[in-house]
Amino acid sequence: MSGHSKWASIKHKKGAADAKRGKIFTKLIREITVAARQGGGKQEANPRLRLGIQRAKDANMPQENIERAIKKGTGELEGVSYEDVTYEGYGPAGVAIMVEVLTDNKNRASGAIRNIFSKKGGNMAGSGSVSWIFEKKGYIVINKSAVDEEKLMDIVLEAGAEDLKTEETNYAITTGQGDFEKIKKAVEGNKIKIETAEITNVPKSTIRVTGENAKKVLSLVNELEDNDDVQNVYANFDIPDDVLKELE
Question: pTM for the complete prediction?
């Protein structure tokens, strides 16, 4: 879990930088469009859409962009049809990697993902090869400076959280999928700032990676995330804090 929390923090910082460049908007628009197409355009009845809109707002996406993406999903506006695809593989040091894609061209996406794995010292694997290593969970990261540990523990456990781990600079809260929004609201209701809040794939076990392999793994994951078709990348590495700081 510790490796996941560290990577979540890095992605949060990277996402903020990407948002400034507008790069993240394309991915968020796709997510909102597909969520609206699959579950309808009403937030209250569509958890995936609700989360996508919240992420878009966190990235300071204009409201008109959000509304346009929803209308493309519901068919009120003409739009491109995207497909959900998940690719699995291994990176350097045997790190398990799952790549979630939203694409209008599966052949293009598959070729691009395979090429990135190959170029960066990894390899694609068949469906189910690594997905069993991950569990779908709600995941909330809070900086230690935001709240006292005992107070946070009382709030989230009372709201139904599965676990709270204390790490070097953060608290990492794990929830069941169904309890995620309730626990997020409990935290926000106590005026506690959240760094990251998402439904994600959390690894059941991690592989400790150091030295050159750490650089190679992060390089592979970063290049996968930079691909326009890629929405999310999940990996089960655990890289020591001092190595991560060096590589950031």
Answer: 0.82
Phi (first) and psi of residue 169, to 5 degrees:
-125, -5
The amino acid occupying position 99 is V
- What are the residue ranges in the chain where pLDDT is below 70? 1-22, 247-248
* CATH, domain range 83-132+205-239: 3.30.70.980
Percent composition of the chain: helix, strand, coil (DSSP 3-state, to 5): 55, 25, 25
Residue 140 has, within 13 A of its CA and on its CB side, a CA count of 28
By CB atoms closer than 10 A (0-12, 13-18, 19+), residue 40 is middle
CB atoms within 10 A of CB 215: 16
The model's pLDDT over 199-218, given as tens digits with 9 standing for 90+, comes to 899 899 999 999 899 999 99
Structure tokens at 57: 């707002």
CATH class entry, domain 134-203? alpha beta
Domain 2-74 CATH (choose: 1.10.10.200, 3.90.79.10, 3.30.230.10, 3.40.190.10): 1.10.10.200
| Domain 2-74 matches domain 83-132+205-239 at the CATH topology level | no
- Which residues partner with 143 through β-bridges? 170
b or e along 45-59 (b: 16 or more beta carbons within 10 Å of the residue's beta carbon)? ebbbbbbbbebbebb
